[in-house]
Amino acid sequence: MMRSLSAYFYLIKSNLVSQMRSYSFLFVIGISVFAGYACVPDAAAGYEIFYIGGVRGIYNSAWLGGLAAMLTTMLLWLFGFFMLRSQISGDARLKLGPLIASAPVRKIRYITAKAAANFVVLLVIGAVLLVAFMAMQLLRGESSQLRLTDYMAPFFFVTFPSLFLLGSLTVLFDVFPGLKGVLGNVLFFCLWIAVGVVSIAAPSDWWDLFGVSGILNTMAHSAAEHYPALSSLEGGGSFGYYQTQGQIPTFVWQGAAWDSSLVPVRLVWIAVGIGGIILSALLFRRFEHLEGSAKAHPLAPGREKAPALPLAAMEHSGSLQLSPAVRVKGARLPGRVKAELKLMLKGMSLWWTLPAIILIAAPLLVTANSVNSLLPFIMIWPLALWSQMGTRDQHYFTTGLTLSCSSPLAKWWTEWLSGVFITLLFSAGAIIRFIAEDQMPALLAWGTGLLFIPALALALGTLGGSKKLFEVIYLLWWYMGPLNHVPSLDFLGVSDRNPVLYLMFTVVLFAAGSAVRLWQTGNLSIRRRSI
């Protein structure tokens, strides 16, 4: 028993240390600290993040503890999932699969250790956010009494069970067939939105997975008691950016009722998480794949290994010959772009290609009133192609190979032009429709987005070294901008056209991304010297 606990302890410790050394961990920690600062604005800041009828609670431990619990679950269910969801796939990518598969470790222990390690990482990030809210309470000075129980009660009743379920989902999405790639990321993003909507409008605690509804209702009820004009708003509050003028009215909120009646609900969440871990263990194949199977392995039983010739015999027979070195001029840009496009499109199945063809032609087939509602969905389908940009060499460990035959900036230009070509291809139907209807402003805004998306993908891929950073940021940007028509975030110009703004963003991303690429490779020259 003690040996098993010791094994779990060291597995969790090693995973936590490796995560703390990663850029993604620092990125999520940075978001958490920034959220702790931005969500507790000064009285004269002129904005609110949590809106509840134009009033707010005094920044005491109860109010900030409730905000911390809600924000922790909502933020980590998105950013934490994308950060931790590829731990098992990462072992396979680092060629640790055969070592783990041959080790005397049961599948359930391996899966449980991975889920527990992810859960601990999420708890550490949640604790950082909790400390950030405590610091903001002391900084704002509206209530100097720091009550730890008001912070820890919502963390225990809301954050703890919700993050446990999330830890099990990070493993389940990594072993469930078909959910390891971009499809799984998109499905989880939709799940995150659905869970958020249901939690805010939950009729009971059984549906409130984020723990938002219970806290919001008590806050709104207390606000209505202090300000009777808000009695019609007892059922709600919302997160967002709301501009305010003058002093915001305040009231004292003593906190929600955290008692034993909530325990059965939270135990159900934990039970669902345990069920997810068991299901993951049943689906996990211990890194069994075609390359490592008995059928394909050259040393498998039933296969005879061809006898190797001695080196001297090969030299006398003349079979050991090297091809002559031929000096070849640098490959031209069209040829490099063509090769890059082949790599980007490699592996795309017929089930991906057919909907892509339909989406390309759809703007030419629908009515004028339906075009704007269709345009955002055209620019979500190539997500799997864009997310490869800037990450392929690091994923397949071919950075040194590619740098030996081209300069970093030449590779950067090639990848960006390939992404622009892909975006132009998917935009063909929309562009033809804009030209036919003489919608030049819409065409200009769309063309700016055509340059912006590949620049964003390449910059984030280069910075993060993984597909997940671009996927989560692009999905959020796409959801709030083109889909929900937030004016400043609509990079496609569906509802509000800001071509100059996004042209500037493109230039900044291009310059910053190329500088990071040069810094990463240690080569600041535009053209490599020939040897």
Based on the model shown, name its key terms.
531 residues, mainly alpha, two-stranded antiparallel ribbon, two-stranded parallel ribbon, 22 helices, 4 strands, 64% helix, disordered C terminus
Question: Can you describe this structure?
Answer:
This protein has 531 residues and is mainly α. It is 64% helix and 3% strand. The strands form two sheets. The chain has a two-stranded antiparallel ribbon with strand order 1-3. Strands 2-4 form a two-stranded parallel sheet. The longest helix is centred in the N-terminal third of the chain and has 34 residues, at 107-140. Mean pLDDT is 80; it is low at 290-306 and 525-531.
Overview in brief:
The chain has 22 helices and four strands. The protein has 531 residues and is mainly alpha-helical.
Q: What is the terminal separation in angstroms?
A: 61 Å
Mean pLDDT: 80
Query: Helical percent range?
Result: 55-70%
Low-pLDDT stretches are 290-306, 525-531
Strand order of the largest sheet: 1-3
Shape: globular
The secondary-structure element order is HHEEHHHHHHHEEHHHHHHHHHHHHH
Largest sheet: 2 strands, antiparallel
Specify the oligomeric state. Answer: single chain
